[in-house]
């Protein structure tokens, strides 16, 4: 049996999800005639507390649409250090929206209103125009860190006071809501636009949304078409996302519990360092002493446990609905054996 922990994007549709996919009512969504996609968009907008939402193939496309909505070429976007929109989207922000990024804060991707203020350009014509603040919650590169709600609000209030637009990269927003005990709507309230993924912790095979005002989502429809995201009988995918949205959010607590179980087990292994206080959701990042990350991943994969290198001496494991507590315990045992073997 394979214990797959490289990402929460590897999940397979459940039997119930396959049933709703098979029975989905569909139409041509480019004509806006797919009833299932419209139901998903309406439901997502309701959950996120926005006027409207638009289904898109990926979180990357949702984020890129947000940049195009809020910015003009030459503008600067302030984001947390290691933000997905800057680091993991193939340079699309520069290629399509023509923006540049200013990273602020610590390695966990969080920052405060003072750090935001210091990064805002002065406004003279020699400097780029600061136009947008993009927060990522949870923060992938930071190990699934959650923005404390009061800190998030303080940063957003500062951005508003300085006339800046706000976008939330909520790829794992669902995890953030569970972890901090507030609704998605409350987290999203300060933001002009929000992106959220169904294909990560919620376990749908494909898809994200971008949500915001009716006017912004109307503009986003045109931008989705320009970026190649117009799809036809997309209700097959939206049925899976709708099922995930309504049935898989509450169970994310299990993934968080399993991540903490994994982190405690790995921290007990010689040569593995984990800051247990920073394991807040479903992502575990471990630093390795004297062992290369690719080597450990290779040794573990040979024993049926898959994790991912995220640096020369750092690995990442992500819990999800396809891995139970027994799988976590097996991963701990295999990784312990692999570490001991690599350190000999």
TrEMBL record:
Modified residues (N6-(pyridoxal phosphate)lysine): 200
InterPro entries for this protein: ArAA_b-elim_lyase/Thr_aldolase (IPR001597), Low_specificity_L-TA-like (IPR023603), PyrdxlP-dep_Trfase (IPR015424), PyrdxlP-dep_Trfase_major (IPR015421), PyrdxlP-dep_Trfase_small (IPR015422)
Top-level taxonomic group: Bacteria
One annotated Gene Ontology cellular component of this protein: cytosol
Cofactors that this protein relies on: pyridoxal 5'-phosphate
Any one Gene Ontology BP term: glycine biosynthetic process
Tagged with keyword Repressor: no
Any GO molecular function: L-allo-threonine aldolase activity
Keywords tagged on the record: Lyase, Pyridoxal phosphate
Family, similarity comment: Belongs to the threonine aldolase family.
Protein name (Swiss-Prot/TrEMBL): Low-specificity L-threonine aldolase
Organism: Sandaracinus amylolyticus
